[in-house]
Amino acid sequence: MTDSAFVVVRPGALTTVQDLGRVGHAHLGVPRSGALDQPAHRLANRLVGNAEHAATLETTLTGCAVRLRRPATVAVTGAPCPVTVDGRPAPWGAAVRVPAGALLEAGAATHGVRSYVAFDGGVAAEAVLGSRATDVLSGLGPAPLADGAVLRLGPPGGPAPGVDGVPHRGVARELVLPVLLGPRDDWFTAAGLRTLATGDFRVSAASNRIGLRTEGPSLERAKDGELASEGMGLGALQVPPDGQPVLFLADHPTTGGYPVVGVVPEPHLAAAAQAVPGTPVRFTPLGRVSWGPSARREPGEAAARRRG
C-alpha cells in the first residue's frame, strides 16, 4: 500500500472528493457535478500549489479528520472552521505543512456549510469520464468518505505561493439570487411571478448537492398538468407541484418534467452552496431571456453564462 496517501479517521456528515466536474456529458444523462463552491475549491488548490482542477475534499457542516502517510502542504477554505494538526490550532485559509503521521482535522463549520481541504498533489482518486468528482445522484466517482478508507495523493507539484492573506467573501445572512425568467415562466400566473419576486422564502433543511430547496409561499400556476421531460441545466429554478422553487446545483438531474420558472446565473451558485437551513432567500427577476432551441433543451446552461 502506497505511503502517498491519507487514512480517514472521521468522515463527517458527508465528505466527498470533488474537482471542477465532468463537463459535456448531459446528453448521456450525466450532470457536471464537481465542487459546489468552486471559488473556494480553486482557492484551496492555489494555496497548496496545485492546478485548479486537482481534486479536493468537500466537507458538509461537521468537517472531517484524516491522518497523513506522507508530509503534505494542506489548506482549508470555504466555510470557516477550526483547523488543527495533532490537536494544535492551525490557520484556516492558509497553507499549512503537515508531517507524515499527523492528524489533520477540519472541524465543524462556524459559518456556512461546505469547507474544502486541498493537499499538494491533489486527491488521486480514479477518474470517471474525465473527473474525480463524487456525484451523489448517479453514484459516479469515488464513494463518500468512510471510517478507515485510504485515499491516494498525487505527487506534489511546485512550491506553494507565499501569501499574507486570502480573499473571503463571507457568508451572507440573506441569500439574494438573480433570476433570468424562462423558459416556462408562462406556466405561472402574474400573481405567481410576483410571489417569486416578493415572497418570504427560506433555505430548507432538505437541501443537498442536488438542489437547494426552499420553504415559503407557493407559486400560483397558470397551467395544469406536467410537461414532457426536457433538459435541465445547472442553476435551473424548477417548481414542483407544491409550488416551492428548487434551485438545481451540481448533482442535479439532467431531465425533468416540472416547469422551470427561471435560471440563476452560475456565478451566484457558490453563495447558495454555503447557505445554511433557515437562511432567508430573496429572488430578484432580471427580465426574460430569449430562449433558443439549444437553450430550451438545457434551460439556462448557455444563456445564464452569457448573462451571468
How does this model look, in words?
The chain has five helices and 20 strands. The radius of gyration is 20 Å and the shape is elongated. A hairpin with a 7-residue loop joins strand 13 (201-203) and strand 14 (211-215). The chain is α+β, with helices and mostly antiparallel strands and 308 residues long. A seven-stranded mixed β-barrel has the order 12-19-16-17-14-13-20. It has a six-stranded antiparallel beta sheet with strand order 7-6-9-4-1-11, with no helix packed on it. The chain has a five-stranded antiparallel beta sheet with strand order 2-3-10-5-8, with helices on one face. The protein has helices spanning 38-48, 190-198, 269-273, 293-297, 301-307, and strands at residues 5-10, 16-18, 56-58, 64-68, 72-78, 83-85, 88-90, 96-98, 103-106, 115-119, 150-152, 175-181, 201-203, 211-215, 230-231, 236-238, 246-248, 255-256, 260-263, 280-288. The longest helix is centred in the N-terminal third of the chain and has 11 residues, at 38-48. The termini are far apart.
